Prior knowledge:
With 75 residues, the protein is mainly β. It contains no helices and five strands.
Amino acid sequence: GSDIVGRIAQVTAPIPGNSVGEIAYVSMGERHMATARSSTGESIPRGAMGVIQDIAGTVVNVRLQTQSSEKEGPL
């Protein structure tokens, strides 16, 4: 349920901006798969990391995790 909102998920099937793909995430120690849609409408490639925004029925809305929030300045 909503306990997964805010979690990091890995995109396992590409998410086109106007359609659905698939993500994998870990909840309560187990790996789960879910149908996912891009919450921003941008395509998210396979292997990218996303942040779970919310859940609409069986579809999870994710947005691409931005690198800038993860790293301290440029490498």
